[in-house]
Design goal:
The chain is α/β, with parallel strands linked by helices and 698 residues long. It is 31% helix and 19% strand. The protein contains 23 helices and 30 strands. A seven-stranded mixed beta sheet has the order 5-4-18-17-16-6-7, sandwiched between helices. A hairpin with a 4-residue loop joins strand 19 and strand 20 (474-478). The longest helix is centred in the first third of the chain and has 19 residues, at 95-113. The two termini are 45 Å apart. Bound molecules: iron/sulfur cluster (SF4). Iron/sulfur cluster binds next to helix 1 and helix 6.
């Protein structure tokens, strides 16, 4: 404190999708402190993660040398290590040897078992350029579309519904557009925890007079600013939303001119929702019919209204249906494309939007061009000089299932941690152990890296240049602030080295070259050159030309679908995959806490953050604790049909009785040993927000 930094470098926060701009203060190649900058998404604000979550980069646990698994180190016991010597299963290697072993193993599987025996997981923590190069490598070097990343565990169902309904998977307006809203709905999202700076804009809008409606089975920080809190039963979103859709149609609250001009499928939606009266839906979702009608009127009659949603909507086997209903609400009432209106799925990881845009998904090439479309494939094949497989690849959970079956035997994982993030961990870790060849590119020996045959040490966020796209569709520049430790190398360089050993001929010398190539293939960012990004720091897409300022509120004049119209898609009411019963009477839901990010690889190694929330806990309602005879702070065991973990109990007045919550960032009690891998059939997202659980005293 008080010490003047030697130098300052303007960059971005590496955590959530808000994309706060910040300045690293540096001395002797160490980050001393971080301060907020006046970026479009943060106006100098930072949350506790952005402010205090940076010293993970200086952790003594950073990987600084390439590592190769020792021949006598069985993968089945990958996580069975001496904490004092966690690298015991590996030996150090030169870059030349490690790259050769990594690439040779991948090539052998490709050439023996075929391209689809390989798969790659990229990362939403990486830059746009890294995502672009990684998917290009998997598609042209491996020869498969088995490429995915954590968007599959995040908003894949939202994107499926948005692509189908309005022809675009991104938000229709930035979150700060809520300053112009008079009604704001937040459903299945906890912005004060997961998007804290965005939450400040929402709070300010509520203080100014916007009516905030929070729809969530759990209580949360924003409820104290809310006009209404609808604490509906978990997993019944479609019933609640169909009740609102029914009300809007039945009471004549639609915008007929908007529906006529900009939509199709209204009559089918009307017919399919006729039976979903609020009076019937009350019995399903637990919200009084009068309240459902009140909220429907409030939203439909608002001059301008926005809907925000998060994983509470998307991480269900009916996640796509949930999002379809939200889209229908906006289309029925014309609450899209004007100031203060919009649909905004709050993006999780800092670059999950950009990584998806860049094609790090199995069914789409960059800019969401379907890989199954021959004409589109031709254009990418011409640009990349290689054939692309014509069929969509497998998604995250499908890839793990295929690895478990033995259909996939080689993987390259860059920056993802499926041995913590994916549902049903016993199954996932067995799958990783079965892989014949696993290459992991990481900054720490994560739970996933522990299963690797080769570990390639990569650079952390402040150690590299790159562009990142936040939840608002703002492409922003992150700048190298410090040098990487030891022999750690930039991800783009490592990907290129692997690519060239797989027979490709790449010659990138800086991420800017990858970005400019990508820009040439992505109409959405056509007008955003690297040079412009360096100058402006942030430009919103779609951006057609160098003098286009970028378009923030979009779709005021039609939609990017074949007909130019948006499409209503009705949703039926389906139960979650696994309902509570007498053996497993609780509903388990998982998520994040304010201080920790995703699987904790970075924030658990950030001193201040881990000091605030150092250990795992299970949230229960005070009434459930009393009924079970459990004291707050007591160690309990939580069990589901897939596994059990032991952790402390925490009394939480935000929890409804019968529901428990466990954060998934703690390796010592990994919540995903418990979660259900059942998939939404459209978005292929697992049902991380609902499964049946039992609480036991230890
Ligand atoms: Fe970082 Fe998100 Fe916090 Fe901003 S709100 S400082 S981007 S974690």
């Amino acid at each position: 404190p008080g010490k003047q930094p030697e130098r300052e470098v303007d960059s971005l926060c590496p955590y959530c999708g808000v994309g706060c701009q910040l300045t690293f203060q540096i001395e002797d190649n160490r980050i001393l402190a971080v301060k907020g900058r006046d970026g479009p998404a943060n106006h100098n604000r930072l949350c506790v993660k952005g402010r205090y979550g940076f010293d993970y980069v200086h952790s003594p646990e950073r990987l600084t040398k390439p590592l190769i698994r020792r021949e006598d180190a069985p993968k089945a016991r990958a996580l069975d290590v001496d904490p004092a010597n966690p690298l015991t299963h590996f030996r150090e290697a030169s870059w030349e040897e490690a790259l050769e072993v990594a690439a040779t193993g991948l090539a052998r599987i490709r050439d023996t078992h075929g391209p689809d025996a390989l798969a790659g997981f990229g990362s939403a923590k990486g830059s746009n350029e890294e995502a672009y190069l990684f998917q290009k490598l998997v598609r042209t070097g491996f020869g498969t579309n088995n490429i995915d990343h954590c968007t599959r565990l995040c908003h894949a169902s939202s994107v499926a519904a948005l692509m189908e309904g309005i022809g675009s998977g991104a938000v229709t307006a930035p979150f700060y557009e809520c300053a112009n809203s008079d009604v704001i709905i937040i459903i299945g999202a906890t912005p004060t925890v997961n998007h804290p700076v965005a939450a400040t804009f929402i709070k300010n809008a509520a203080k100014r007079g916007a009516k905030l409606v929070v729809m969530d089975p759990r209580g949360q920080g924003l409820t104290r600013h809310a006009h209404l809190h609808l604490q509906f039963r978990g997993g019944t979103d479609v019933a609640l939303l169909n009740g609102m859709i029914h009300t809007i149609i039945e009471e004549g609250l639609t915008d007929p001119a908007y529906i006529e001009r900009f939509t199709e499928g209204f009559e089918e939606l009307k017919a399919r929702t006729t039976a979903f009266t609020p009076e019937r839906m009350e019995g399903v979702c637990g919200i009084p019919a009068a309240t459902i009608r009140e909220v429907a009127r409030l939203y439909a009659q608002a001059k301008a209204a926005m809907i925000f949603w998060g994983m509470g909507v998307s991480q269900h086997t009916h996640g796509t249906d949930n999002a379809r209903c939200l889209i229908a609400l906006a289309l029925l009432t014309g609450q899209v494309g004007r100031p203060g209106t919009g649909l905004h799925p709050l993006r999780g990881q800092n670059n999950v939007q950009g990584a998806s845009d860049a094609g790090l998904i199995p069914m789409f090439l960059p800019d969401y061009r379907p890989v199954g479309d021959a004409e589109i494939r031709d254009s990418f094949e011409a640009a990349w000089g290689r054939d692309i497989a014509p069929h969509a690849g497998l998604t995250v959970v499908e890839i793990m299932n295929a690895a478990h079956r033995g259909d996939i035997s080689g993987m390259y994982i860059m920056g993802e941690n499926p041995a913590m993030s994916d549902p049903d961990q016993s199954h996932v870790r067995e799958a990783l152990a079965k892989l014949d060849h696993l290459v992991v590119q990481e900054i720490f020996l994560t739970e996933t890296a522990a299963f690797a045959d080769v570990i390639l040490p990569a650079t952390a966020f402040p150690e590299k240049d790159g562009s990142f796209t936040n939840t608002n569709r703002q492409v922003q520049i992150g700048r190298k602030a410090i040098d990487a430790p030891g022999d750690a190398r930039p991800d783009w360089w490592i990907i290129q080295e692997i690519a060239n050993r797989l027979g490709l001929r790449w010659h990138y010398s800086h991420p800017r070259e990858a970005y400019e190539e990508m820009r040439g293939l992505m109409p959405s960012i056509r007008g955003i050159s690297w040079e412009r990004l360096e100058r402006a720091g942030s430009v919103t897409y779609p951006c057609d030309s160098a003098d286009d300022p970028g378009q923030e509120v979009i779709f005021g004049d039609g939609f990017p679908t074949e007909s130019g119209k948006a499409r209503f898609v009705a949703a039926d009411i389906l139960p979650p995959d696994e309902m509570p019963d007498k053996d497993y009477p609780f509903v388990l839901t998982t998520g994040r806490v304010l201080e920790h990010w995703h699987t904790g690889a970075m924030t658990r190694r950030a001193t201040v953050l881990d000091a605030i929330e150092p250990e795992p806990f299970c949230h229960l309602s005070p009434a459930d604790l009393v009924a079970a005879g459990i004291e707050p702070g007591e160690t309990i065991r939580v069990r589901t049909r897939r596994g059990a973990i032991a952790l402390k109990a925490r009394a939480d007045t935000d929890m409804p009785s019968g529901t428990i919550f466990i954060p998934f960032c703690y390796a010592e009690a990994a919540a995903n040993f418990l979660t259900n891998p059942a998939l939404d059939p459209f978005g292929k997202i697992p049902e991380l927000k609902f499964c049946a659980a039992r609480v036991e005293r230890t």
